[in-house]
Amino acid sequence: MPPIDDPADFIRRETTVKPVPHAEEIRLHVADEAMELWQKTEEDLGELGLDPPFWAFAWAGGQGLARYILDTPALVAGKDVLDFACGSGLVGIAAMMAGANSCRGVDIDPFAIAAARLNAELNGVRLDLEIADLTSQATPSADVVFCGDVFYDRQMAGAVVCFLDRLLDAGIDVLVGDPGRSYLPTGRLTELSVYKVPVVGALEDNEIKKTSVFRVGKS
Fold first, then answer.
1. Strands 80-84 and 102-107, how do they pair?
2. At CA 191, angle to CA 187 and CA 197, rounded to 5?
3. Residue 1 forms part of a structural domain
4. How many domains does the chain have?
5. Which residue range is the domain that position 176 belongs to?
6. Domain containing 181 — which CATH number?
7. What is the predicted pLDDT for the residue at 206?
């Protein structure tokens, strides 16, 4: 296995292009086996303890958001969108396909940014992508912010909730896609839609996840 000099080359080599199960209008570079890809990434980079390859899968919350956006294009039409913790870029791609004016995709993982760029090209849309942790930066400018599958870790969830509060204070619309992960702030959410989303069984506790799209309200 050659070393990872270029994340895009690694992604092309180790993934397969497939339609998203719950949003078949969109295709992504996805991995077949999570643990095998994770191990290859660590071996090729010569680093242990890397984050899992979240960018290599269409997670339930992202699929739910993508479906809702594609079915509700007025939500994003002509608007400037932020895809927070963008991973594969699925949600941002859906927003651009639904008529968004622009989409900024942000993630802390350089592999996610490389994957999102490849996936945007694959689907014929443009995403403005960058590596950044927005939870520790000034409140971004956007009309709508999407957050998919970000409440799986206590520490991250706490930082995300504070970030979402700043967005709401700035008058920004915030939508979350989530299959009921452990740290979802349920008391602040208004459910907009519910889906049964096919997922990778090896990564979840089931091959079908009940997934909701919520609008976030102030505490």
1. parallel
2. 115
3. no
4. 1
5. 59-216
6. 3.40.50.150
7. 66
**Does any domain span residue 19?**
no
Contacts 24+ apart (CB under 8 A), 199-207: 199/21, 199/57, 199/58, 199/59, 199/60, 199/63, 200/34, 200/57, 202/33, 202/34, 202/35, 203/34, 203/57, 204/60, 204/179
Which residues touch 176 (CB under 8 Å, ≥6 apart)? Answer: 61, 65, 146, 147, 148, 150, 151, 184, 189, 213, 214, 215, 216
State the CB neighbour count (10 A cutoff) for residue 125: 18
pTM of this prediction? Answer: 0.90
Q: pLDDT tens digits, residue range 17-60? A: 999 999 999 999 998 765 455 454 444 444 434 456 788 889 99
Residues 126-149, buried b or exposed e (16+ Cβ, 10 A)?
Answer: ebebeeeebbeeeebebbbbbbbb
Q: DSSP class of residue 189?
A: E
pLDDT exceeds cutoff 70 at 1: no
